[in-house]
Amino acid sequence: MPWSNQSGGGGWKSGGGGGNNGGGPWGQGPWGQGPSGGGGGGGGGQQPDLEELLKRSQDRLKQVMPGSGLPGPLMLLLAAPIVAVLGFYLFTFRVNPDELGVVLRFGEFVRQEPPGLHFRLPPPIEEVRLPKVTRQNIIEVGMRSGTSTRGLQTTVRDVPEESLMLTGDENIVDVDFVVYWRIKDAASYLFNIQQPEATVKEVAESAMREIVGKSNIAPLLTEARQKAEADAQRLIQSTLDSYNSGIQIDQVQLQKVDPPMQVIDAFRDVQAARADQERLQNEAFSYANRIVPEARGEAERILQGAEGFKQQTVAEAQGQASRFLSVYQEYEKAPEVTRQRLFLETMERVLAGADKIILDNKGGQGVVPFLPLDQLQQRAKPAQPAGSN
């Protein structure tokens, strides 16, 4: 027999006292020491065949379980599941639903595999990397959030060296923001940039400093926050695309835009004054919008009234003129009758509301009648109320 099967030596030990005294399990390499004429550990012989390997495994099992004798077919039956499991792990790989399998062959990218179970060549021929392409990653700039020791409250720690920025009007502003990003191209993400998270963080901080440096502090503190977020997102995305990083920026969200802590009270007073100014301006605009239409309506009403009075006066004048012309035409036809009728109509209008006594100059014929003119002219006094003196 080419290998030592004595009880003193294990299945993976050497057969003599040659080069490795102690005879550890891995003393002579993975296959032990080959047969040689002497007991030395010199040259290497031919590799053992499968039968020899099974015999050595049987000897090893005998050492572990003394007194057990397993036949060769049973050993093959026991070794088959082990070989199958090893082959499964060596020749297959699994891609989770949130991952994408990137297969490298001798370090070179060859293909991408979707979620599921896939075949591969055993390492080191093919290597598989599994980036999580559906997970949304978060980068914080200017702050660091964490959980308290009891895990009940989230704490936020400010990082001044990242958050303090200079605006276009030479003011200092404290800006904290969060960048949400995901992997767009797994191959570019793995091979074109070395440290993706650090790259995204540095690019985001540089882009935000550029956006803040082009803006004044007042709009940043009030109405220009959404515009700053959109501009920063576009600038970060264009920079990462120029690197061919395979990263997609989903959102840039400003968490805090405040003046430095040393002057924040003064800035708050300024903001309060500006808010009051805007409120008063809005009230003034509201009053003007209410008064001006009312004044215009009143002016229009007066103009319409004047126009109506004008038309009425002109119509009355034209009517009187027409009436006079018609009377004049009748007067030309019968002057005496017309004069008499005009006299009677005039006296009727003049004497209609006056007290009058009419005497016939033909009555009496020299007899002077007694007429109680003073009594006729007296009017009946109103009756006195009862009980008055």
Q: Could you describe the largest sheet, including whether it forms a barrel?
A: 4 strands, antiparallel
Structural class designation: alpha+beta
Radius of gyration: 58 Å
Determine the strand fraction and express it as a percent band: 15-25%
Number of strands: 11
Q: Could you explain how this protein is built, in words?
A:
Strands 6, 9, 10 and 11 form a four-stranded antiparallel beta sheet that branches. Strands 3-2-5 form a three-stranded antiparallel beta sheet, with no helix packed on it. It has a two-stranded antiparallel ribbon with strand order 1-4. The protein contains ten helices and eleven strands. It has helices at residues 50-64, 72-91, 160-163, 186-191, 196-213, 217-221, 225-242, 264-333, 335-351, 373-377; strands at residues 92-95, 101-105, 108-113, 116-119, 126-129, 137-141, 143-147, 154-158, 164-166, 172-183, 247-258. It has 389 residues and is an alpha+beta fold. The longest helix is centred in the C-terminal third of the chain and has 70 residues, at 264-333. Helix 5 (196-213) crosses helix 7 (225-242) and helix 8 crosses helix 9 (335-351). Residues 1-48 have low confidence and may be disordered.
Which terms would index this structure?
disordered N terminus; four-stranded antiparallel beta sheet; three-stranded antiparallel beta sheet; alpha+beta; 389 residues
Ordered list of secondary-structure elements with their pairings:
Elements: H1 50-64, H2 72-91, E1 92-95, E2 101-105, E3 108-113, E4 116-119, E5 126-129, E6 137-141, E7 143-147, E8 154-158, H3 160-163, E9 164-166, E10 172-183, H4 186-191, H5 196-213, H6 217-221, H7 225-242, E11 247-258, H8 264-333, H9 335-351, H10 373-377
Antiparallel strand pairs: 1-4, 2-3, 2-5, 6-10, 7-8, 9-10, 10-11
Helix pairs in contact: 5-7, 8-9
